[in-house]
Write the structure tokens for this entry.
Amino acid sequence: MPSLPLDGVRVADFTGVWAGSYLTMILGDLGAEVIKIENPYVLQPNTRGQAHPPPAILETGRALASGYPNRQLGPRPWNYCPTYVALFRNKKSFTVDYRRPEGLDVLGRLVRECDVFVENSAVGTMERLGIDYDWLRDKRPDILALRMPAFGSDGEYREARAFGIQMEAVIGHTLLRSYPDLDPSQTSMSLAGDQLAGNNAVLAILMALWHRDRTGRGQLIEMAQAENATAMLGPGLMEYELNGQEPPRAGNRSIYGHAPQGLYPCRAAGPVEEAGDRWIGLSVTCDEEWEALRREMGDPEWARDPKLAHAEGRRSEHDRIDAKLGRWTAGFEDYDLFHRLQAAGVPCAPVLEASRVHDDPQVAARGLFQPRQLQDDVGTFRYMAPFLRFSETPVEFFQAPVAFGEHNEYVYRELLGVDDEEYERLRAAGHIRQEFDESVP
């Protein structure tokens, strides 16, 4: 089998939550050996969920909190948390309490064996641990270190702690993707900035590896996530800077003036509370597509209004079109209408809630989800597979979501050369574990 692009590259993964974990997942997909550094006494919020969650969490109804396999917490719930299993394929995990001198020494020995060190902690966290860039370079002079603070390491917001929802609110994304009739605080959590940060961080590391191969020099890379995410806002920023106009909240409507565009109801399969509502996304991008949509609707009298024959007129009448169009789409099954309109040349697709995605023919044909066995025999489940496709270097889903401390033996004995006596001493001191300490909530 041909080698993958990052075969031979080893990554020390100090990241957490979504953006950093997404970054290292892609590096692992590309063939890098990603070693997740985990502390049995410190739980990263929203990475492995809770170490010892109360059973009541299963009743919250929130998928990110309650979506454990078989609706049970299992013997080691930190290995099956939904926010964790989505991002930890193709990685290794080892444990060490890096807050203690002997643990920090172990981490330094690992850094000597790594090409890349990545972290996305709040500014000052790594320095307080003694793990700054100078410390990393002392261990590995040509190390590539990447940090992903929310708002950068200087400036007014440098010490602000943030998840994606705070960063996107600060840069204005939450405002722009809100709906005209809602307050921006009511906008749902759809945090594209995390994926954007992860993808661009991968690109930065690839370029840094290319540079090091030619110069022999490592480097420190800082990618402020909020600054990076402003790439999503180009049209809105230009509209304000050049024309002095604050972009409107467009909801699902087109920023390019296509009309009609939006989500339209289809025939419900059950109550909304049970995700039985059905919707279709539709966008008319030209006059020809509008004519095709008119024909499929039976060319009703309201649609023959000459004002609607061109995009400008349709934009001005968008509310009226939506009301009429929604009453028509509501009479159809979503997939039936999707196939009918696609065949007529009207861009559209059904809007699928999570449980229906697995059965979508296009998703199945591309193998976007693949079955993997979770730890502790809790069952086999389908997980997102690598999205990258290369003609000569096939990317594989070779490692199921990694268990806490699953690769302790490999890292300590093979990579670091720890002998039996030292291994037992570190284990007795609590560094080498496969479960979180009882003190961790």
About this structure: The CA atoms of residues 98 and 104 lie 4 Å apart.
